[in-house]
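INFO worker-7 received task bundle
INFO bundle size: 2
INFO processing item 0
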Amino acid sequence: MNQFERFELLLGTEALEKLKNSRVAVFGVGGVGGYTVEALARSGVGRLDLIDSDTVSLTNLNRQIIALHSTLGQYKTDVAAARVRDINPECEATVHRMFYLPETAEQFDFAEYDYIVDAIDTVSGKLELALRAQEAGTPIISSMGTGNKLDPTAFEVADISKTSVCPLARVMRLECRKRGIKKLKVVYSKEQARKPLSIPSESDGTRRSIPASTAFVPSVAGLIIAGEVIKDLCQIK
């Protein structure tokens, strides 16, 4: 008996071996990326690189799988890596406590990865990931906006050129064309974003535009992304 035998019934031994020998980088391990990491670890991916600079905060508890009262204040990458090892001790989880931007891109060799997951928030970082992945010839999937939404059934998987409605996808379409990024697989929602009922006050006294979020929208996006990664790595149609 092995912990992946139920999965093996669907994919077969060869596919599981492929996953065991695969290395996936997940940029951003929050509401979306945390669930992606969870599913990849439970699917037998052998090496995971976890990239994030943030720590677990109280407001993460409503939607992030790594967020517990026991993990408050800890680095998200550290919590995620410990969870991965507890799920599958044979999985090698490498932690990068950093905020990914064009200025930090040189710290990564994107040709080393079999797949890249973009679950970060900044447009500049997302574009740089897409560009670096294209240059390295490494598959990538990118999460579009999940904030201010309530319908987890509205997500679709498409090339960025085929997206609509999502404001972030609209910006990404334009900027990808400018940068010569020819293809970018994304998960996006056609649900119109809702307006938050109020703007929370930050501890520093400022009132910034913070997106509202749920337990059941980012998580679904993260699991869809994991499914696409698994299917692509195993060449499942």
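INFO item 0 finished
INFO processing item 1
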Amino acid sequence: MKPIRVGLLGLGVVGGGTYAILERNREEISRRAGREIHVAMAAVRDVDLERAREKTAGRVALTTDPQQVVNSPDVDIVAELMGGIHPAKELVLQAIARGKHVVTANKALLALHGNEIFKAAHERGVMVAFEAAVAGGIPIIKTLREGLTANRIEWIAGIINGTSNYILTSMRDRGVSFSEALKEAQSLGYAEADPTFDIEGIDAAHKLTIMAAIAFGIPMQFERAYTEGISTLTAEDIRYAEEFGYRIKLLGITRRTARGIELRVHPTLIPERRLIANVDGVMNAVLVKGDAVGTTLHYGAGAGAEPTGSSVVADLVDITRMATADPGNRVPHLAFQPDQMHDDVVLPVAEIETSYYLRMRAFDRPGVLADVTRILADLGISIEAMLQREPAAGEERVDVIMLTHQTVERQIDQAIAKIEALDSISGPVTRIRLEPLGPV
């Protein structure tokens, strides 16, 4: 049978990993796909051209013009592995318009423009596969879209950014500051020179947006995701959380509620006995709660050449198997049939419900705790646990830490404003959300 011919847009980390896997496991992949999958052409940058020639040893037609890959009659599937929004968006839409299937690892592109891309692919009768866009080598897209299709998904919570997880692990294990941990991550190649997307939760929000769309049958709504990063976390908050039996992770959380969908990324206290609380370093993990299966945990490498390339190749195999199937019989891009998508409300962060860690610096004088607890009680916020440190020698202020029961965020906002207005409180109140994530 005629091989499926792939055109790679990018032969860097992910593109190189994809090519290496296809070459090394060619026979095994062909046995599974039913026909050979062959990289026919690749577009690379001028500066990478010589290295690409060495890597492919003359077996792949190389070009510095990605348009040649998209327009080539010798390419059946375009694999967009270049990243960024432009020109990736234009190239993907052009490939679709020419009737070519597309594989992409570009989470930002899908989170911001996925609705347009999937609509164009549906109208043209081609597939867009994107397993590699979320959690690298963990097959979470296929799990949500196919493996858990019998379930009504209740919530998803994931460590889906390895850079942030590495930094938090270093802060906890060695007690270093955020800035020290970030510098180390950059020196090891885990963080970019400009780490904003990773440490401020933007990268995780891109991935969460995609998972929420598949889990709940809603359009991509990245602009409605609440995003809060880890750059303001301190080693002392990580230490206090441990004293209460919790660990702090940057989590992406999406939950179906009676009032709408929660879609949020932020530092989160998790009970240390939970498996996900013990996912350290650059590794990723995703918890999914389904009504039938309960809670499942999916763990693995969230980035890297071959882990991500593994997901790209899996998508290439899926498309090869289904390329000749009637479009109406293929798995829908976002799990639900296009005419069955719902535009459910995504709740503003003020409307979410969770528990909270509150840390305040208070002057060591009578009546301070009574004032704070009165404010919380008046707003219907109950305290689950509290810790007060003795003042250091010569120090007038002490740390007071409280864990609350579940409440609505707007009430916590009101409480914090009132507490910060007290003469006995020095400086801002630190607030970190808390999720039990039981039972796994």
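INFO item 1 finished
INFO post-check item 1: The mean pLDDT is 96.
INFO post-check item 1: Residues 6 and 39 are 5 Å apart (CA to CA).
INFO worker-7 idle
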